[in-house]
Amino acid sequence: MNGGETLPPRAHLLIVDDEANTLASLSRAFRLAGHDAAVCDNATKALELARAQPFDLILSDVFMPGKDGLTLLEELKSQGVTAPVVMMSGQAHIEMAVRATRLGALDFLEKPISTDKLLLTVENVLKLQRLESENRQLRHRLGKHEIVWKGEAMRRVMVQLERVAASESRVCILGETGTGKELVARTIHERSPRASGPFITLNCAAVPGELIESELFGHEKGAFTGAAGRHVGKFEQANHGTIFLDEIGDMPLSMQAKLLRVLEEGEVERIGGDKPISVDVRVVVATHRDLESRVREEKFRQDLFHRIYVFPLVLPPLRERRDDILALVEHFAAQVSAQNGWKPVPFTAEAMEALQSYSWPGNVRELRNMVERLMLLASDGKVDLATVQLALPKNSVGGIVSSLSSSAGLAERVQGFEREVILAELKHSQQNVSLAAKSLGLERSHLYKKAEQLGIDLRAMRRRQEQPQD
Ligand SMILES: Nc1ncnc2c1ncn2[C@@H]1O[C@H](COP(=O)(O)OP(=O)(O)OP(=O)(O)O)[C@@H](O)[C@H]1O
Ligand SMILES: [Mg+2]
Fold first, then answer.
1. 22, 134, 180, 338: which could form a disulfide with 17 (CB 3.0–4.6 Å)?
2. Which listed CATH number (3.40.50.2300, 3.20.20.370, 3.40.50.1390, 3.30.450.20) goes with 3-137?
3. What residues of the chain score a pLDDT lower than 50?
């Protein structure tokens, strides 16, 4: 928690008015109150400024030569400028105030402006924004974004996490699927000085290559076929906060070059835009891939690698930190009970032992789904060894797979094991890929990739499944 929460935050304002005297007296009043203000005497210039840099508040006159304040307000909103706008006018009438409010103005002040009233309005707007961001933080916390751990391996990770969260360093989170990369990224943001800012995520593997650029940097109306309106990209949305680029190892090479430029210059350019926009964003990335070998294979740019690989945080797979399993089972069991309004369901010691010795290819996500399944399968009000044996893939309790030749090497045996587990799960779910993915604790796209590596043709299975049954 930071102790400065009760202090009024220093705000960056933009004042738009055609009268030099008004600009001078208002900006002085703001400076005396500890804020800083940029001034501008016409709407066209104001729009340019507001698009180029983020303001905490824009204060604009209505009547000005050229474009008037209400048109400015309309254009600010339609161009995706999110700063709150307060209008002021010397010839205010109620219809004008109503129109301004409809267009999205937060308040309407009559001239001559009383400095006290103006400052109060500004403080209120800023307070509202702060409440909104606190609200966002609270929602995150209530959303059970809590890292549960017990053993030495995760203790080391948590020490590193605390240290790096407090800094502005770029972080690269590495780990297999389901090890908690996204949870860790969110926690870094929440424990950082940027916690009250936004946390924005982009999964580079889930967005088609040709759309990533517009997702990240935004586009202007008509920038390409299908760009019907303006779109504010994730980098701009993440201003003063953190952007989390998930599965960065899967980013297409052409995009990597563009990302590199943004990281070097701290500016983004919307597609079809004519000016760079400066952004203040902390970058956290994650991947389940081995980035160094992607670099060797020339699938990942070396220069980008060095830019993002500032602080690597490695999340060990669950099978290498079995001492966390008990705490995680208890955590998820309590969570599932609370969500469903169930009475707590105890796990017997034998059941826990079996869960601790399983290999968990889907890591913590698989464990969480398994706990829920076990609680549904529980008989006599408890989860015992029989329940676990029923729920875990066949032959996996004890970690020994009988059907594999002992002459195979480790990698081969592990692959064979993974193949068996996936096939068993697909059989269990009657070839329903989504269901199988869910109970393995994998995302569908991951199951597809994994199956492909292991020579299982999921697409053919799906086609068979989609054929009309007679
Ligand atoms: N240590 C932990 N404590 C509590 N919950 C955890 C922990 N690790 C992971 N989880 C939970 O497990 C699920 C999977 O975690 P997350 O999505 O962060 O994994 P991931 O590494 O990003 O996986 P993927 O590579 O598949 O995207 C989430 O619901 C997350 O909240
Ligand atoms: Mg993830």
1. 22
2. 3.40.50.2300
3. 1-7, 397-407, 468-470
State which of 161, 173, 177, 182 you would mutate to test the pocket of ligand 1, scoring each by most atoms of that ligand within 8 A of its C-beta. 182
Q: Give residue 155's pLDDT.
A: 95
End-to-end CA distance of the chain: 63
Cα 441 to middle of ligand 1, angstroms = 10
What are the tokens at 190?
């929440």
Q: pLDDT by residue (tens digit) across 121-152?
A: 888 888 887 787 776 666 555 555 789 999 99
In ligand 1, the atom with minimum distance to the C-alpha of 144 is 31
Of 158, 173, 179, the one to substitute when testing ligand 1's pocket (max ligand atoms within 8 A of C-beta) is 179
C-beta 247 within 6 A of ligand 1? no
pLDDT of residue 2: 37
Q: What pLDDT is stored for residue 141 in this prediction?
A: 56
Q: What's the CATH architecture for 151-316? A: 3-Layer(aba) Sandwich (3.40)
Measured distance CA(360)–CA(339) in Å, rounded: 24
Q: Which CATH number among 3.30.160.20, 1.10.8.60, 3.40.190.10, 1.10.238.10 corresponds to the domain 321-466?
A: 1.10.8.60
Tell whether ligand 1 has an atom less than 6 A from the beta carbon of residue 450.
Answer: no
Measured distance CA(231)–CA(266) in Å, rounded: 19
Question: How many helices (DSSP H) and strands (DSSP E) are in the chain?
Answer: 20, 14
For ligand 1, atom 9, which residue shows the shortest CA distance? 180
From the alpha carbon of 185, which atom of ligand 1 is closest?
18
Find out whether 169 and 311 touch, Cβ atoms under 8 Å: yes
pLDDT of residue 136: 63
Q: Which two tokens stand for residue 254?
A: 């052409």
Q: Which residues pair with 61 in a beta bridge?
A: 88
CA of 350 to the centre of ligand 2 (A): 31
In this chain, the answer to whether the domains covering 3-137 and 151-316 adopt an identical fold is yes
